[in-house]
Amino acid sequence: MAGSRPWSELKRYENLVAIAALALMAALPLIEIVARKTVGSGIPGSIPIVQHLTLWITFLGAALAARSERLLALSTAAFLPARAKPAVKLASYSLGAAITAGMASASLDLVLVQREAGDIVAWSIPAWVAMSIMPLGYALMAARLVWRASDQWKWRLAGLIPVAAGATLASRLAETPVPDLVFPAGLVLLAATALGMPIFAVLAGAALLMFWANSVPPAAVPAETYRLSASPMLPAIPLFTLGGYIFSEGGASRRLMRMFTALVGWMPGGLAIVTCLLLAFFTPFTGASGVTILSMGGLLLPMLLKARYPESTAIGLVTVSGSIGLLFPPSLPVILYGIYAQTPIDKLFLAGLLPGSLLVGVVAGWGAWRGWFAGAGRTPFRGREAAAAIWEAKWELLLPVVVLAGLFGGFATLVEAAALTVLYAVVVQCLVYRDLKIRGDLPRITVECATLSGGFLIILGSALGFTNYMIYAEIPTHAMNWVRLHIDSPLLFLLALNGFLLIVGALMDIYSAILVIVPLITPIAQSYGIDPVHLGIIFLANLELGYLTPPIGANLFLSSYRFKQSPGRVFLASAPYTLILLGAVLLITYLPYLLGR
Fold it and tell me: Which of 241, 246, 250 has the alpha carbon at shortest distance from 283?
């Protein structure tokens, strides 16, 4: 009992710091709005503070994700024989810990350099103090990867050997590359990726390896990760995620379920339409992360089965609908794409309304047809019930209005609109409906949000390092020259792009793909005269299919976990919906007027 106390204290302090960081991130933009409207100017230095708090959430959240073994990884190891899994896990986690230890060493070097430079973030806070979370976060992740690598102490101790080697190599061998080792090291990384090494470690390891081969100091990789704190819009991601979590954990799903059932439940297959609309409403607010499957799947699947929907149809519908609202505001992938493709975010959201509705329509239509064919029950339409349901859900229905009014009304930036979403969610769920308790529920939800946000933001940070190497090696230029040489027609290029993005979606999560692939395809598409906004919608619609295709297929494995079904069975249940979505994506690709362009 006494031995576990230090770990319990560490867990408690981690949670407290994560809660404080997210709370401050939400509070400062709100104060900024008030100050700007009342005294004519905002708070000096608040923007860089919020940006650096995003850096802290990245590494604190990633450490929390490592603590609960929720760092995103490929899921192919799930198909291995049971007796092989312990050895595979030990090997992949130990290598991931070694790479993470190397990143800790490299980021410590970066912090020491910054300490000598003496730069200030704001409010007299030295930049090196703000950056200190990087080596600390990497060290915590490395330690937890070693701990999670095995249940036996002897193997955990063995896992420390590659960790020590990784830290040593990162600091001592940076200027003495051995070119003959690059290829076999790359094969080891590839194998470890397939066997379940966390994706952030894969990208960081690839970046370290490539820079090492070119005699570039390893500190260049965490230096690119530090760019997270330079983005004026990236703080919107954890804030929108927090707002979405608060709504999904409260009674919003029940109220919206009642409303959609009252309005469309009378239609043939109406419950399938209700399911699709409900999940599409929440997906943009939870980062298209599949959280809706975990939080609402237990409510929706039994209702579909009770209404006599075939089990495969019901499981497939909930699985696919978990990411179906990806193109609607304030979807985090759309925001992230706009940032890194330098495409106006408001234009992306406007252009995505009709394509997004098309994707929702085809999924809901197929599910409704299958329900009607199976004789699924309906809910009679009653005007009084519909009016009462709409009135009960009025505060949730106003949420998109609040966000869009803030964004397009000219009085709030994207980050400020995200902070308004958090405030609105707290007021509605805690004070109006009282579904949640401020002291009892909000801390738990905030820690969960930090864990999810850190889990994918750390991937973005690692992907920045890898992307920087691609620019250093002029890979986008070489790729553009090759495509121009072999493909003449813009239509043929779009077809090849669809095929390429389907493969990317099957192998990478959407956030990594945005960071790694967008710099490759954007200049090529421009050379063919493809509209940048149209390219963004094509990219995001294709990557939406990545949630449904193995080996990444996040929704497949979330559904497998939630409904206690094998991943293969969930994949087969989702396959008809996936094929229909593929047809809709081709329509979006070749009919740009769907985007109003």
Answer: 241
